[in-house]
Amino acid sequence: MTIKVTRVAAGILIKPDGQFLLASRPAGKPYAGYWEFPGGKLEQGENALAALKRELHEELGIEVVQATPWLCQRFDYPHARVELYFYRVTQWRGEIHSHEGQDFAWQQVGALNVSPILPANGPILRGLSLSEVLLFSTAGQIEEADLLRQMAAHWQRRSAWLVLREPQLDTESYRQLCEKIAALSRPHGGKLIAHGVDWCALQDLPVDGVHLSSRQLLTAQQRPRGFDWVGASTHNQIELEQAMRLGLDYTVLGHVCATASHPDQAPLGWTQFEALLSLGWACPCFAIGGQRLADLPRAQSLGAHGVALLSGAWE
Which domain CATH number covers 217? Predict the structure, then answer.
């Protein structure tokens, strides 16, 4: 039996200070009283962005000025199978008003004060806590003291996440470097993620998660246990699909642009990057390969969560 899929566009309205808007479902609808991101169903022949703009105007009385695609969440409720296209809305015109009798609440990541949350929206809240900037260390290309100095400076500026990619180090040297980086002050948060290591043997490392190489990703039978965050490097649709099957928290996709670390491999290019993201994925994806902070708006306009920086982080 073919199950009808209800397609929905949802908007995550985000203020400059990071607060985002949740709305309660009005009486008379399934899950009345539950909190969700505002939006509504796509009409016949309507694309997700057009539906989002129409719904937010009808529900909230605002005009969307800036919205970028983000995640696609598929969820089976007892009454329906839904496919939700989430957009991050960072600019709008007009004051928010309740046009359908719903309540609104501005919320902060990690400090929700409303409940219950609509089930399909739960994973989205986790994705919002990811930094938009993912840093990869230099695999021994700069001195340890310089790496520590620059990482301290990064964490003084923003809540960047560091993937510690140092394959030239033995297990004990890697552990010692992890401990030194973990001891750095993180006034804005930020995370330290182990990369390409035997996570079963190193679960006592002072890290917040683990990042899988594409080879580790394809051979993994389940999500690594014992880590709050698990991500992976991907290059194509097959690897992205595997990351979804394992229930990972994020992916990096590339390399997007030409890079000195892969001189003999043709880059994906922005067109192919956008095509792969348009297939719809449930976890945030970072653009990697030849990226700079200046590329962040372009990457996000194509559906990326943010950018992953290699050499661009340490210049």
Answer: 3.20.20.70
